[in-house]
Design a protein that fits this description.
By secondary structure, the chain is of the alpha+beta class. Helix content is 21%, strand content 48%. It has 1 helix and 14 strands; from the N terminus they run H-E-E-E-E-E-E-E-E-E-E-E-E-E-E. It is globular. The N terminus is likely disordered.
């Protein structure tokens, strides 16, 4: 009889252990599912046309085929995997156009990282091409450490390995330059 109780106790312990094992695996699976949800965007937009205003004035228009919203992450961001076209409109109504093949905008820092065939055409006909460009929207400053090429309205052509400039390009600091520049005597 004692052997029978011992056998029943062993069976109960075995059933309890198996149940605990599958319960733990279920909790782990649920946690993995939560991580998968964190890796997916909070929202997705198709054929987006956003208009930004500043004190009632239209300041910018952003167009993109696809927007992914990852603001549910601890360091939230918006991703534009198919590129952007951004029209920046100054106070006089002049438009500068920025395009890139890919962009990501970090919500907490105000930094926008544009990559792949970045092209800027300013309202005054300055044209700039780069592989990658950063735009700090908080300070209105643009910079890159990648090679770029610029074409100025006076015919000046400049190639360099990086620059930083204010948003309207009235201040431009370029590094390791090579090009053609016209100077009045």
């Amino acid at each position: 009889m004692q052997k029978r109780y011992l056998h029943i106790i062993k069976n109960i312990v075995t059933v309890f252990s198996v149940t605990m094992f599958f319960s733990c695996e279920s909790i782990v699976s649920k946690k993995k599912g939560l991580n998968a949800a964190e890796d997916t965007p909070l929202a997705e937009g198709i054929e987006i046309n956003l208009k930004y205003t500043d004190s009632g004035r239209l300041a910018a228009v952003l167009r993109t085929p696809r927007l992914l919203d990852y603001t549910n992450k601890s360091f939230g961001y918006h991703e534009f995997p198919e590129g952007v076209v951004l029209d920046i409109i100054d106070k006089d109504g002049k438009v500068s156009v920025v395009t890139s093949d890919y962009a990501i905008s970090y919500e907490s820092t105000g930094l926008i990282d544009m990559r792949g065939n970045v092209d800027i055409k300013t309202a005054d006909s300055t044209h700039l091409q780069a592989r990658q460009l950063y735009w700090d929207t908080n300070t209105s400053w643009i910079f890159t450490d990648q090679p770029y090429k610029s074409y100025l309205p006076d015919g000046t052509v400049n190639e360099a390995d990086g620059f930083d400039a204010n948003q309207d390009f009235t201040i431009l600091n370029s590094r390791i330059n090579e090009g053609v520049m016209f100077i009045e005597e």
